[in-house]
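pipeline stage [seq->struct] | target=Dipeptide epimerase | organism=Hungatella effluvii | residues=361
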Amino acid sequence: MRIAKIETAEVNIPLVTPFKTALRTVNSVNDIVVRVTADDGRTGFGEAPPTAVITGDTKGSIRCAIEEFIAPNLIGMEIDNLDGMMKKLHGCMVKNTSAKAAVDMALYDLYAQSCRKPLYRILGGSRTEVETDLTISVNGVDEMVEDSIKAVKQGFRILKIKVGKEGVKDIRRIREIRAAVGPEIRLRIDANQGWTAKEAVRIIRAMEDSGIEMDLVEQPVNAHDFDGMKFVTANVATPVLADESVFSPEDAVRIIQNRAADLINIKLMKTGGIYEALKICAIAESYGVECMIGCMLESKIAVSAAAHLAAGKGIITRADLDGPSLCSTDPYTGGPVYEGAVIRMNDNDGIGITRVPAFEP
């Protein structure tokens, strides 16, 4: 079975509510989707969001990378030569990690189909269910409290609270959300690079001193401020999660060896797909550092690929895969089943997505 064709299309799915972080505000999932067709007619699907503020990738750059560089290098290759395909994919151009991720997951989809197994079983098959958190966007305190209560009523036991825009005022946000949802709900605090190192320590310590338990604090400082991240990690009790600071296996090694963070957040759009993400998993396993699997503003295709990775690797102990829950509709057929906070893997071959209307006439 060989790669016969690689195509791109665009999807636009409105969000239930605007997605607001310290970096941006978004109203819809407006992503590039990829279809890789084999010479026997089987298809694999992938997806890439244009998250220029984090990855540098735009819709135009993603389509250009796939159509003009990646596709010409891959067409004609054998699907069962997974390592060869991945070396060609990652070696044909530098950066462009979102474009690579979209094609990578489509190739893994086809490869697992050729093995007649669900992808998560190919990747290790450690579990059949993954529990995700739900993101609470940055808004006024009262609105965030209301959104948090609504999420808990929907069955979410873990909330990811976006902060980082108003410094010490974030303390009130977290304090009031904790009071509203009670002590049993796990809170993950995501500053999206919004604090300085000293500010982060002041805010986190204030919350700790108030008795507010937090599952973790994600990316408190600028992505390139490794020393600042290390300072925060050394001076607070709450686990610190490195997100935008970790794109590659080399980044993961640097963070871990310098004890700049306690946990690593893997996102396929940062790593360039599953192939490089597996390397980070292996590194984390060797150091005994747990990982979280996260997503950008992605719909069910890309999030399902990430869910397969999470279900396959035991070192991934946390999931932030709420993209489909934030979308107002699900235009696709097949794939894992999303039931509130729980993502249930099914036994369909590959990733399991069988229909993507964007490629239909």
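stage status: PASS
auto-comment: DSSP finds 13 helices and 16 strands in the chain. The chain has two domains: 3-117, 121-357.
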